Amino acid sequence: MEFNELIQARHSVRDFQKQPVSESDLRTIISQAQMSPSWVNSQPWQVYVANGETATKIRTAYAKGAADGIKGHPDLPLTHRADWSATAQANMANFAAERDAMGIGETFVTSEAEVFQAPTLVFLTIAKPSNPWSLYDLGLFSQSLMLAAKNLGIDSIPAYNIVRYPDILREVMEIPADQVIVMGIALGYATDNPINTFQPQRQAVDEVLTIK
Ligand SMILES: Cc1cc2nc3c(=O)[nH]c(=O)nc-3n(C[C@H](O)[C@H](O)[C@H](O)COP(=O)(O)O)c2cc1C
């Protein structure tokens, strides 16, 4: 896919078809993501993929957790909205307004609770001891991963919700205690659910850019 088309086409999909991503496509996606830059080429990431049955097992355990009222307790700390910058808070408010204007607010809640019905779940970890720069590296890795996926026609969403119960992930995926589970990315193929057409707007370039 041509780059401008690719960067515009990637957006978060919140309802997936049942078909998992093939192992050969997963290998291509992860090897392309490995081309991401990192501090002194430290490549701090490890990648765990739950595919097909394993993803179903995790989604089922998550649904039970939600039904039992267990709060999300990810490895990275959660911060209250009020503790974000004013700009970030305004952007998050716009996100909610755009979503609600489409009348898909409730579908959002259901899709998150069901882990987007995703057939393929990728978990990205960093070994302890970890440092803040490795989080930056992992962000670069994540975007490369999602663009590589889209280039193969595979949709994605990075989501806190995918890593909200790290104890379940450690058990099912056999992730060692010395790995910090940072982020989860769902992969697969979008359904025609209207929720998947949601693409929140970005700030104007002049609002984020200073050139002197
Ligand atoms: C760190 C991070 C956490 C996210 N967590 C969630 C989530 O829990 N639920 C969700 O629906 N989307 C989640 N998203 C997706 C964002 O809402 C989405 O990337 C953003 O609104 C921009 O939209 P786009 O990805 O469609 O371009 C998350 C994205 C990031 C980068």
TrEMBL record:
Cleaved signal peptide residues: none
GO molecular function terms noted in the UniProt entry: oxidoreductase activity
Alphabetical list of Pfam families matching this protein: Nitroreductase
Domain Nitroreductase residue range list: 7-189
Keyword DNA-binding: no
Keywords: Oxidoreductase
Keyword Oxidoreductase appears in the UniProt entry: yes
Protein family per UniProt: Belongs to the nitroreductase family.
Annotated protein name in UniProt: Nitroreductase
Provenance organism: Limosilactobacillus equigenerosi DSM 18793 = JCM 14505
